[in-house]
Design a protein that fits this description.
The chain has helices spanning 18-28, 91-100, 164-172, 227-239, 298-305; strands spanning 8-15, 32-38, 46-51, 60-65, 78-86, 107-111, 114-120, 126-131, 152-160, 176-181, 184-188, 198-203, 217-224, 248-249, 253-259, 265-273. By secondary structure, the chain is of the alpha+beta class. It has a single domain, classed as 2,3-Dihydroxybiphenyl 1,2-Dioxygenase, domain 1.
């Protein structure tokens, strides 16, 4: 293997309402909106990115809010939970904050020795905050105290009917098994990666297959530093028999996609050029940015399809 996966790059999910989604991730969870753009394949739909101050790989959750779309049905063949890292001792603060905000499904638990607060997002998606030592600097522009603020992703949990082939794929990407608890097996990068280097697999052979909809994770992306590393990863996946797309320019990173054996859509994304390629860091996520191929649609999109978002 001539490339190195750094951990997660981003997680992309489906949503039903752009303003509700924006309010939850910026106001309730205290993340920064680092980009306001559109779905490359459906420019009538926003693509909203939330993360730390600069949208560092490993911190960014993104959403396609398709208006009025039906909720997804959880099950196998998908990422069933997205977890964020918070400092040790922060869960009491977050439980009180989320309770006061009316967030549903608040549950405390432990997994592999780490305290967790599980809850539901605005479209019923399974989210969690996990207490852990994490040196990453949080976004401090919201009203969440720095001592409690989200540091980035902790992990994602893939719910799979058959786990062995996906575990072998993770091993090919550089992951090693680091723990087991019940039906969950954790895989992580030996060097920790960018801080978002954990993938949990929940083996659920008797669970029905998931149905995608609002609240479903559409894909997860793994981080590589540049195009050369991405090309090496693509060759390796092709050699392993996966059907991999050519590199696609997503403006803020280059992406390749392939379907994992368990059904989860994987992406490998470059860390460059980054979210400040078309906006100053001080103003990330403020203006509507359109891909070049959709720039001529700006007037129509703003007048007919993309309702203004309040910050």
């Amino acid at each position: 293997m001539t490339y190195h996966i750094n951990g997660l790059h981003h997680v992309t999910a489906l949503a039903s309402d752009a303003q509700t989604n924006n309010d939850f991730f910026t106001r309730t969870l205290g993340l920064r909106r680092v980009k306001k753009t559109v779905n490359f394949d459906a420019p009538q739909v926003y693509h909203l990115y939330y993360g730390d101050r600069t949208g560092t790989p490993g911190t960014v959750i993104t959403h396609f809010p398709f208006p009025h779309t039906r909720r997804g049905q959880p099950g196998t063949g998908e990422v069933g939970e997205t977890a964020f890292a918070v400092p040790k001792g922060a869960l009491d603060y977050w439980q009180a904050r989320l309770s006061q905000s009316g967030v549903a499904g608040l549950t405390r638990s432990d997994r592999l020795g780490e305290a967790r607060l599980c809850f539901a997002g605005p479209d019923g998606e399974a989210l969690a905050l996990v207490e852990t030592d994490d040196a990453r600097a949080p976004w401090t522009g919201a009203d969440v105290p720095e001592a409690h603020a989200i540091r980035g992703f902790h992990s994602v949990t893939m719910c799979l009917a058959e786990a062995d082939a996906s575990a072998a794929l993770l091993a090919r990407l550089g992951y090693v098994e680091t723990g087991r608890e019940g039906a969950v097996t954790r895989y992580a990068l030996p060097d920790g990666g960018n801080g978002a280097g954990r993938i949990d697999i929940e083996h659920a052979p008797d669970t029905d297959e998931a149905r995608q909809g609002a609240g479903s994770v559409h894909h997860i992306a793994f981080s590589v530093p540049d195009r050369d590393a991405q090309d090496a990863a693509r060759r390796d996946m092709l050699d392993a028999g996966y059907q991999v797309t050519p590199p696609i320019d997503r403006d803020y990173f280059w992406a390749i996609y392939f379907r994992s054996p368990g059904g989860v859509l994987f992406e490998i994304a470059t860390d460059v050029p980054g979210f400040d390629r078309d906006e100053d860091i001080a103003h990330l996520g403020e203006a509507l940015k359109l891909p070049r191929q959709h720039a001529h649609l700006r007037a129509e999109l703003e007048q007919r399809h993309l309702a203004p978002l309040s910050d």
